Queue: 3 jobs
Job 1
Amino acid sequence: MRSFALLLGLAAARCAFGQDGALPFRLVAGINLGVGLPRLETINGAAFTTSPHFAGTLDLGATWTYRERWGLAALGVLAINGYDYMKGAVDYDIYHLTRRAEVRAFWQRSLNERLRTSVRAGIGLGLAFQGGDTRDTREGTFQALTTATPLQRTYLAPEVCLVKMEGRHRVEWGLRYVTHLQREVALSTRLSDGADTTLATARHDHLALVIRFHLGMKRLALPAPPPPAIAYGDRTTDTLTTLTANRQRITLWLWDNAERDGDTLSVIVNGRPVLTGLALTRKRHKLKVDLAPGMNELLVVAHNEGRVPPNTASALVRTGRGRKELLFSTSMQRNQALRIMREAR
């Protein structure tokens, strides 16, 4: 349990400090509303009967998703399983609380880009903890003796869900089935009414409706360097190309792929400097860039033209729509712009 709590703490801390859009961490809270059935065995006389009764959980944890394709979740769970027993005028309910820790892997596929909906299939692997307890209920000729034995059991929980994306947040609902791998009885109840006796046993397997809310934390803004001390606004500007991005934060690598001749440049995004006075070498310089919704302009301006004009820079851009290799060519009279359309999410 300590290692599980540490995992949740690290995930929450990672959320608080912000993440690249490709590897988002989110806090998650959810409930499961389901039904379960016990097994009844008649010992003497007329049998007690039962019907599907309430099973539910409260889940808290964190999720990590890679490019809205697959991901992992770590959860702490408080579970309750209820059972209802009837015979004649007798109607007896019993509820049992347990604690669980669960890790879940899931795969996701887009259903409708415009509506921002996806289908998600996953499977959870968990550990259920319960302590020992006994409850003895007597009312007239009716007696119910319920026993829970101390257990730690693993379980599997396959599920299929629909996910709706709301900005950086997610809403998820679907169905899951919980089955315990160790088939020991979790809760047994001996029901008696006069000479009639029934033994009810339960393993807490159940089918449930899942409702979860994934809270995306607002990432910190990238630091802004000072503006370049050059009059780049008086130069002409050419557009190199236009790309499409499906995330807020993209990655740009810049380097000198030819002769190292002292080329130095700055990068301006939507009028705001993000990189000032980079001297290009063969070593790739990694730059994170935040995009506004809609069309963005990434402007590359030269500080000089090195020993071999013009000022050239090789670039690799990752936008979430794949990678694109580019070659910027600038001078003391001409800037070059990369236009990026950020799609709404």
Job 2
Amino acid sequence: MRAFIREQLPLSDLGGWLDAGRGFSLPTFAVWGNHEDGAVVDA
């Protein structure tokens, strides 16, 4: 079950974003639940 959740139900797209070669210029911590919906940010 844990493997399925990690592989099929990621908590965010941060892993893919970082795998694409993107990053941060300063040390950054990601905390589960510490995010905004994309529609909220775009607005």
Job 3
Amino acid sequence: MKETVFDPVFDQKADILVLGAGVAGLSAALRLADAGRQPLVLEAAPAPGGRARSWFDPTCAEELDNGPHLLMGAYTHTLQLLNRLGTRHQLLEESTPTFTFWDATHGVHRLTCPDWPAPWHLLAALARFPALSLSDGLAALRLAPDLLSHPSRLEKQSVTQWLTRHRQGENLCQRLWYPLCLTTLNEPPGSANAALFVTVLKRLFLADRGAARPLLPAIPLSRLLITPAQTAIQQAGGSVRCRCRVRELTFADRRLQAVHTDQGSWLQPRAVIAALPPAALARLIPEWATRTRMTALRNAPIVSVHLTYDYPATLPAALIGLPQTTSQWFLDRNIIQGLPPCHTNGRFTAVLSAAYRERTWSPARLIQAVHQDLSRMVPALAHQTPQAARVIKEHQATFAAWPDTTACRPVSQTPWDNFWLAGDWTATGLPATLEGAVQSGVGAAEKILDLLAHER
């Protein structure tokens, strides 16, 4: 094997390095920069963003996200970050927590939480939800003991096992719990981690009423979050360097001594945050990765299908769920971006979570399946053909939120005194979400700031 050679001309000292310019890495770097530090972010890709990036797609003639992201009112860290970046106003916010659904039996129906204290607002919403019976609403009360206790004891159970144990009826599961599980955990209920699902339910429905409000980005993610974060880091004294892949880490005396990259080596950093995917980190520190079981984490896919019609169709809501169909959720891009429904081409995005099966389908098959789902809800489109279509398969969208995965998610602190981890896959207590990524990045930065403060 050829020995790796690093050009000593580029060797330089480093203060604080952040490895990876995804949401976690950028959040960490911005927190450090705001505290007066000068972090350097090293990113392997040509541009920052990771899985939250967007780009101009010539087929649809618009900027598309790598995958649609739904935010919630419970995303406190993410919303604080958007406030810091001055882009919070670019979210489409419902005035009340409302989820819209459609099926052939009930048509359009909504789960709306009234302005009541938690959890009574959820119980009232279930009582008024036309797709559920009174017995369904009463069955939901059986979940209360677990929702009020620590979810860790459910770590080895699947969501299906947990719901079955509490005698949740098939109708309630199919109409509410299963779609919510797929959306928040990116995993089917039969293989989803019950402890994580309970954590989600607690954050959404046992906190304040606004926690369950869905928030939709009205502009592409790169413009909402990534580019503003990069600009803010640079304005505060930090920097972001792309096309700079980390090739090797050198450790000695309980410290990370050097970071070797395509663009040279950084020596004796005071602190380093690795905000890398688990597979990338495992290549750099394989023995420790195996010992901590992080190599046991697997990936779960998401497929998104963007359709544009030469017809002014519109959906009943900006976001609408279709239980028991291929397309679990549809977004109306015109409504989200505030465009008038009349005289505007219909622009829709279907989200297929936990797409273990659908990721193997051809683009043509996916487009046809999504078009059929859309036509059932909007019959006027049945005789239309999509003018433009784009299929995006994100094979590593999230970690697979299976039972007993918590033991495979390392904490931020490592055995090395100047080396921390960040990422939505680390031990955040949350599923793989923007909120988990931001929380982990800010948390790692706070640990470094505390350490440096004590060094004075």
